[in-house]
């Protein structure tokens, strides 16, 4: 089941494919398609593999086929062979973590969920379930397309290699040393710290992320419950089919009408499967933004960290400067243990003071450098982050609007089917 | 229809039975002419009409004035114009020191000479209907008496004075009277006459006794060994058993659907508002999300209407038929008894064949009774089958209509949302 992405004349990207060939996701308008301009990308298939894992135990996992093809060649009329390679979910995770660390100011597109959540009874929570795998395949392709159309992320070398170099990619990623950075960042982020002057815009953004996450979670939860109920309503109508059939057997003139009406009731009951499958696509679209909300919050947190580190550097510099002043003037304004001990155990020698002053001077120089660096870092972060946030906002508004439209269209289709079935049944009843 | 020539019965009204063409002695083809034609012989009408001339309509109240407006002066079953119209309307609560109860207005319009006046309007309560039915069963034991809605309601469970309950009951009482008025024999019954015209029903003397006896006992001679039923009556019995089963199943299915729909409705009522709360912290998406919330709310109301309608209109009719069938089975049993008495007495006479006496008068009388009973029952059975077909056709097309209306309401809501969702997008596209 191939998913093909096509670039149409106005540079909008349409994703065709998915189950039953129906249009999966909303049209994404990317004015700057970046990598996508040069390369067709798709996650075409999924396969089960077995192998030995890190602790030499047998395991079963799924791999996904990534296919790429240069766009120029296609437009020339020739059809070059596709390049393809297999990747598993954990490699996608690795790629994403790398991107998170390397581009802290970016709202990094999310991966499809690791485990099935918000399931209703008919949906399987099993990761190996073919329906789950299929929806994950679609989600992974979506992830790649999002990254490939991101103004900054799309030109990342590691990302390019992910799409083109099957072997040795993992090693290459680790060689970048991002892991170490990741670990220290993670530790810092998890620690509790308070920023003295929080940036209002980022605080608002974080709050928005919180609210978005909360509301979409709730929406998905209730929708899943409603799906369960709707399933029940439709399926019970199937029982009418059976009883009408039995009843028609004991009737004379009424028999035919009843029997055929029964068939329509069966058709009605069966129709709910397709309806709910389509709705699942809608749920997936919402889920993407649920995870995007998380990415947003994460980014705001990183900004906080950056600011905090700047504030720490400033604080450190200020205290060193004060120490210098005290030493120079001989007044003690700040409490320092060294100062106390020297008072208790006698004044230090002028040589010692000289040495200390010199040390402080170097430290202050370093400190000023650090503050300058961190300031620049902060500014850079804020600038880049805000660009990406604006881009994200526009994308989100567009995508969610499209999702709502397709949801409305789904509902319309369901209503029309319902009208048709009941009209058919009514015709049969009229013939009774 | 076969059997010998039915003999005139005392209770058959002014004309002897020979002079009245049997309702269904007309050809079969008349029935197949148009599915909406109720009576053979009569001119076909486009609308579904009860023999009384009132159009079949479960929703609107049948007031006597609207009744007249829809009067169809066609040849009726007996070649006479229909001359008796009854309706039950306008339920009102009466509060006295002893009790609280509901009365219904019973309106009669007639040209029959058995009635002193051409029009009557008086108030009756359920007790009075119950009295009438018992009297009919007592005095016309060979006929199928239509059922009344259930007598007893659990005081804590059902609100006897709620609008829905009272309306459901009114419809059933109306149907009961119409069925009686429609019957060529029952409609001429003196008790029916009294019910429609007498200010005061002198029912007190028999009431206590009757309620103790339950089913009428007068005609049951009792104690005679029942022989095998003639084939045609055995077939009726078998059919009734099977049909009751099917009705029970349909009742259960309908109840289950209502339950599932109610639970789905509960989820919808939670689902819609989530979109509303989401819209409260969105800018561009505010209107679309509010729109979706409104849509879901409209669908919820439509669904609520559907489940209410099904509860009020569909289930009671099913239950009514189950009661009808119960009373029919009892009539069959009575018939068996009458036949048993005859056969037993006949055997006793035949035994004394040597005596050479003519068949004693009482045995002849028994034979008459058997033959009349059989004839009446067969006629009533055929009429019942016809009515049953009408009733269920109406019931099931009604069910279809309600579902169609539900989907049409939802469709309208979602379709009106689409332009709202797309509108801004086009405007936005231009500014891009």
Automatic annotation (TrEMBL), chain A:
Keyword terms, alphabetized: Protein transport, Transport
UniProt protein name: PX domain-containing protein
GO molecular function: phosphatidylinositol-3-phosphate binding
Gene name tied to this protein: LOC107596089
Species assigned in the record: Sinocyclocheilus grahami (Dianchi golden-line fish)
CC annotations in GO: early endosome membrane; plasma membrane; SNARE complex
Pfam entry (one): PX
SMART domains: PX (SM00312)
Cross-referenced CDD domains: BAR_SNX4, PX_SNX4
Membership in a protein family: Belongs to the sorting nexin family.
Domain PX: 42-169
């Amino acid at each position: 089941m191939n998913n093909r992405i096509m670039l149409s004349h106005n540079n909008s990207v349409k994703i065709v494919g998915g189950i039953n060939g129906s249009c999966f996701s909303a049209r994404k308008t990317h004015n700057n398609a970046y990598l996508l301009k040069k390369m067709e990308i798709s996650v075409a298939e999924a396969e089960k593999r077995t192998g030995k894992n890190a602790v030499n135990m047998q395991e079963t996992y799924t791999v996904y086929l990534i296919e790429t093809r240069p766009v120029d060649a296609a437009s020339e009329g020739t059809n070059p062979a596709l390049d393809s390679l297999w990747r598993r979910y954990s490699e996608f995770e690795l790629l994403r973590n790398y991107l998170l660390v390397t581009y802290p100011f970016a709202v990094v597109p999310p991966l499809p969920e690791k485990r099935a959540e918000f399931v209703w009874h008919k949906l399987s929570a099993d990761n190996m379930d073919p329906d789950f795998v299929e929806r994950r395949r679609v989600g992974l392709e979506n992830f790649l397309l999002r990254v490939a159309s991101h103004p900054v992320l799309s030109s990342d070398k590691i990302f390019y290699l992910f799409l083109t170099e099957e072997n040795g990619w993992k090693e290459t990623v680790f060689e970048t040393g991002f892991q170490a950075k990741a670990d220290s960042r993670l530790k810092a982020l998890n620690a509790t710290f308070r920023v003295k002057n929080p940036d209002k815009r980022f605080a608002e953004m974080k709050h928005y992320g919180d609210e978005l996450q909360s509301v979409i979670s709730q929406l998905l939860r209730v929708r899943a419950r409603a799906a369960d109920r709707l399933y029940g309503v439709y399926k019970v109508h199937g029982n009418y089919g059976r009883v009408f059939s039995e009843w028609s057997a004991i009737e004379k003139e009424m028999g035919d009408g009843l029997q055929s009406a029964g068939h329509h009731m069966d058709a009605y009951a069966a129709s709910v499967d397709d309806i709910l499958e389509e709705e699942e696509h809608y749920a997936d679209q919402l889920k993407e933004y649920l995870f995007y909300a998380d990415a947003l919050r994460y980014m705001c947190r990183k900004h906080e960290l950056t600011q905090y580190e700047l504030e720490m550097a400033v604080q450190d510099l200020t205290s060193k400067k004060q120490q210098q002043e005290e030493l120079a003037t001989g007044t003690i304004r700040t409490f320092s243990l060294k100062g106390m001990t020297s008072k208790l155990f006698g004044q230090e020698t002028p040589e010692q003071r000289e040495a200390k002053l010199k040390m402080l001077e170097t430290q202050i120089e370093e400190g000023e450098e650090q503050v300058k660096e961190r300031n620049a870092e902060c500014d850079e972060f804020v600038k880049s982050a805000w660009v990406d946030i604006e881009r994200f906002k526009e994308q989100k508004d567009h995508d969610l609007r499209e999702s709502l439209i397709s949801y409305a269209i789904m509902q319309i289709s369901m209503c029309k089917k319902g009208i048709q079935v009941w009209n058919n049944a009514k015709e049969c009843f009229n013939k009774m | 229809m076969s059997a010998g020539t039915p003999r005139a019965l005392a209770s058959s009204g002014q004309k002897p039975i020979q002079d009245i063409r049997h309702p269904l002695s007309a050809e079969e083809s008349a029935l197949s002419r148009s599915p909406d034609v109720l009576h053979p012989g009569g001119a076909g009408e486009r609308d579904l009409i009860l023999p009384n001339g009132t159009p079949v309509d479960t929703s609107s109240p049948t007031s006597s004035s609207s009744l007249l407006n829809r009067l169809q002066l066609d040849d009726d079953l007996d070649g006479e114009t229909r001359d008796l119209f009854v309706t039950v309307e306008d339920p009102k609560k009466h509060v006295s020191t002893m009790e609280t109860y509901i009365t219904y207005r019973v309106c009669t319009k007639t040209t029959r000479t058995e009635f002193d006046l051409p029009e009557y309007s008086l108030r009756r309560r359920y007790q009075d209907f119950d009295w009438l039915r018992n009297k009919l069963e007592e005095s016309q034991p060979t006929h199928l008496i239509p059922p009344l809605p259930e007598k007893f309601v659990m005081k804590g469970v059902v609100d006897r004075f709620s609008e829905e309950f009272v309306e459901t009951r009114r419809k059933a009482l109306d149907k009961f009277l119409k069925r009686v008025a429609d019957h060529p024999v029952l409609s001429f019954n003196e008790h029916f006459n009294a019910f429609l015209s007498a200010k005061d029903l002198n029912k007190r003397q028999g009431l206590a006794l009757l309620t103790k006896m339950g089913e009428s006992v007068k005609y049951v001679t009792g104690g005679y060994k029942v022989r095998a039923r003639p084939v045609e009556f055995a077939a009726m019995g078998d059919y009734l058993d099977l049909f009751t089963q099917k009705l029970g199943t349909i009742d259960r299915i309908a109840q289950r659907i209502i339950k599932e729909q109610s639970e789905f409705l509960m989820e919808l009522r939670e689902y819609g508002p989530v979109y509303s709360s989401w819209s409260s912290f969105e800018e561009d998406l505010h209107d679309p999300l509010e729109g979706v919330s409104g849509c879901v709310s409209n669908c919820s109301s439509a669904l609520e209407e559907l489940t209410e309608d099904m509860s009020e209109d569909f289930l009671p009719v099913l239950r009514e038929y189950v009661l009808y069938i119960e009373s029919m089975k009892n009539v069959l049993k009575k018939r068996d008894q009458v036949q048993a008495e005859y056969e037993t007495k006949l055997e006793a006479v035949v035994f004394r064949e040597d005596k050479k006496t003519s068949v004693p008068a009482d045995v002849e009388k028994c034979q008459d009774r058997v033959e009349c009973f059989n004839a009446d029952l067969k006629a009533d059975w055929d009429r019942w089958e016809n009515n049953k077909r009408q009733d269920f056709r109406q019931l099931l097309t009604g069910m279809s209509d309600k579902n169609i209306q539900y989907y049409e309401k939802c469709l309208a809501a979602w379709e009106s949302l689409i332009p709202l969702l797309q509108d801004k997008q086009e405007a936005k596209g231009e500014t891009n």
